[in-house]
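Milestone M4 deliverable, item 7.
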Amino acid sequence: MVVKMNKQKLNYLIIIILISSSILTGCNRPAPENGEVTLDITQAYQTVQARLTESSLTTPSVVNTDTPTIPPNETSTPVPAQPTSTNPPTSLPTTQPPAKKCDQAAAGVPIDVTIPDDTELNPGQSFTKTWRLQNSGTCTWTNAYSISLFSGDSMSAPDAVALPSNVAPGESVDVSVDLIAPLEAGTYQGNWKLKNENGDWFGIGPSGDSAFWVKIVIKQSITGTLTPSVSVTPTITTTLSPETQTPNIIVSGSANLSPNDNINLDNLLINSGSGDDISYTIEEENQKLYLSPLAGVSLGVLANSSPDYYTCQAMSLSNAPLVLNYLNAGDNICFLTENSNYGYFRLISLDQNNLKLTIQVTTWSSQ
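Output delivered:
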């Protein structure tokens, strides 16, 4: 068996052995003559030192040849995966729907009854937008409720449009508003909401505060500075070279029209009962004044400069009525009569007391 001992302990053991040996040797020496026993410490130390030196030269160094035991790397014990259940849970958490508000709307089916998003219109064209809205709240809507422009492009919208009838919770209603397309090319959007009888806003959607809208596209701008209100505002589609001889003017003069009057633009006769071209009427409910073409006659609004025959001939005219409320004194309207004669009339004045309209008419012969 190999006894492991470090060098320092081995030296101490050798010293002890040597000192013990020296003492024993001394004891065996003859006693001095005087009978005193002495111990030569110096000699003993020198002897021990000599033995130590000798021992250090002859004693091999103890080398630890045992391979230390290295503990294995510690590794975490994997946790076995829990088996995945393929069975559905016995119960699922339920979410309570938000409580309904008194005033809340939802989109009808469809919400855009007329004029879907991105409908293309002509500059200045009048149109009617109709939405279908459902009462998703808990309170009945009365005719004291209305829709109003909330943000975006007004498109000559009125301040408010009252609901046409009472709408109980769960019922739907169609609400219409008359609008006018802008004159400049572009995309226009007006955002609308409802108002209750107290003037508080509310809208559609889960939270009851989202707007519904009208969105149109105008592809071509109209030239001029007027503010027309026509179903199809004309634009000059071609440029014609003037003829060597301008057509003859067959009518030139002014006319005064009262509400419900008709006029023949070929001879300026009013309420003749024959050959009438336009009718001047008033809509009492919304206080709008109209110039409506009759019997295939067509009209078109131009800028406030006087047109000539070829300008009116080149225009795209429409048989839609004009809303005078959105026109100004000095505006010109080209026309094509029942007898196929081109001409134009200028708006001179409108008497606010009796609503008498004064126009200046010029009609050219088509022969």
